[in-house]
C-alpha cells in the first residue's frame, strides 16, 4: 500500500511559521525575570507573572477547541499570531509591574490560542496513517525554537538592550504572520463533514477529550520531569562551576532532530507504547547523568540522551493523544495536550520551588527523574490492556 503524501507546501509553510512563532516567544522567556527585577519587581511578582501566564493559556483552550469546529482555520491562526505580535511589542512600553501582569495574562491567552490552533492545523494537514511521523516533523519547529531562541535572546539582552530583543522578536513574529497568510488550511466543513451540526459549547467538554485522558495524564508526568530541567539547569551550572549549560540544550536539539523522523515512522507502524517505554528509560538516565555532572562533557552526554528520550517522547505523546479521538474532536484533544504540558511544567515549578528550599539542585533532578519511571509504569499498564495489534488511524 502506497503511503499518502506528507510533504505539501501548506505543511512546509506551517512548520516554518510555527518555528518563527516559537522563536519570537522563546526569546523573551529567560529574559523576563531579570527585566521585571530591573523595573522594581520582586521575586514573588516574577513567580506570579509566570503563573498568571500559564493559567491564562489553559483557560482559553476549551473555547478555542470549540471555535475550531465552526470557524476557518486561517482566521483563527492569524488572530493568534497577530495577538502574540501586539503583546510582545507592549513589553518595553510599561515600567509598572501591575500593568506588566495584565500584559502577561493577555499574552498567555494569545499563546494558548496560537499553540492550540497551529497544532490542530498541522493535524489537519497530516495524513492520519502518518500522524506520528508528521507530528514529529511539526514538533521540530517547537524543539528548534525552544533551543535556539533562548540563547539568542540572552545574548541580545546581555550585550545590547531589552528593546532590541523585543524588536527582533517582533520581526520574527511578522515573518510568521506572512507565512501563515500564504498557507492553505483545511476548512471546518472538510474536517467535520460527517457532522450535520456542531455540538453546543461546554467548557468541560471542550477542555477534556475523555478518550485521550490517559496519554494526557502521561504527558503531565513527563513534562513535570522536564520542568525541573528548564527551571534549574542554569542555577545548577552556576553552582557546579559549569560554563557550558548551553551545550546541554544544543546537543538535546541535535539528537532530537536526528531521531525525530525515525521515531515518528516507528510510531505509525507500531504504536506509542514500546517507543514511550524506551524514551522514558532514556530520559530517566539523562536526568541522573545531569544530576551527577561535574564537567561539560557530562552535560553533552546528558543532553544527547535527553534529546533522544524526551525529544522523541513528546511528539509521540501528542500523536497518541490525537490517535485516541476522532477527527472532529482533534482540536479539543490537541488543546488538552498543550494544557497538559502547561500543567506539568507549571506544577513542577511550584512544587520544586518549595522543595528547593531544603535540598540541592542536583537532588531536584534526581527526584524529578522518578516521574519518568512513573511514565514507564503507566505505559506498560496500558500496553498490557491492548487486545488487538496497533493499526494506524485512517
Automatic annotation (TrEMBL):
Protein name per the record: MFS transporter
Classification via Pfam families: MFS_1
Domain of life: Bacteria
Transmembrane stretches, start-end: 7-29, 44-64, 76-103, 138-158, 164-186, 213-235, 241-263, 275-293, 299-323, 335-356, 362-381
PANTHER family named in the record: PERMEASE (PTHR23531:SF2), QUINOLENE RESISTANCE PROTEIN NORA (PTHR23531)
Principal subcellular localization: membrane
Entry's Gene Ontology cellular component terms: plasma membrane
Subcellular location field: Cell membrane
Domain Major facilitator superfamily (MFS) profile: 10-387
Assigned keywords, A-Z: Membrane, Transmembrane, Transmembrane helix, Transport
UniProt feature coiled coil, ranges: none
GO molecular function terms listed in the Swiss-Prot or TrEMBL record: transmembrane transporter activity
UniProt membrane topology term: Multi-pass membrane protein
